[in-house]
Amino acid sequence: MPLNDSAVFLPSVVHIFTAPVGGPAPTLAMVKAAPATAPAGWDDLGHSSTEEDIEFDTDGGDSEVKGSRQVRNLREITEATVDFLSVNSIQLTNDTLTLFYGPGGDTSKPGQYDAPSAFGTAERGVLLVFLDGAKRAGLWWPRTSIRRNGGIGAAADDFLRFPLRFTRLQASGQPSERWLADGLGATLAP
């Protein structure tokens, strides 16, 4: 693989959009228009903390080498992995609280959000749009489970924080994830 300086990406700004599971897949044109134009049918999560940056992680994936009496390293078996990302939302909105507590909260009274009695998870598609100057790249997870990822942060010298965990789930008939950016996929003929 040759060196390609234009393929190096410094994601200084990230916008996180959510949409109902099963909605239309985002396109490269949508990613390029964001964040000035939110992708149709997608909601912007809003401000997120720069103190605890967005973190991608994986659970599982451990492997074990199995052998026979004749060949000690005959096959490597790898357990399934679960991919997730963690982000701290710093906007106090009904949408943020619904992702944090799960569905079932009461928003019927002005100026009030009543959390559900049992916390749960919300399922949404997620699209991350990474900005590097004028360049854009998108990462789409068609189906995620979103839940709280710890307690609310309320340090005196920082924003109120709602830690969220987005766990990637498999959606029928969809890829597990899709990257959208110039230079990916098939090269178009001039």
Short précis:
By secondary structure, the chain is mostly beta strands. Helix content is 7%, strand content 36%. It has helices spanning 28-33, 94-101, and strands spanning 13-19, 43-44, 55-60, 63-66, 75-78, 81-89, 122-132, 135-148, 162-169, 178-181.
Our estimate of the beta-strand percent is 35-45%
| Count of strand segments | 10
The unreliable regions are none
Characterize the main sheet.
8 strands, antiparallel
Write down the Rg.
Answer: 20 Å
The H-and-E topology, N to C, reads as: EHEEEEEHEEEE
Which structural class best describes the helix and strand composition?
A: mainly beta
Rounded mean pLDDT is 92
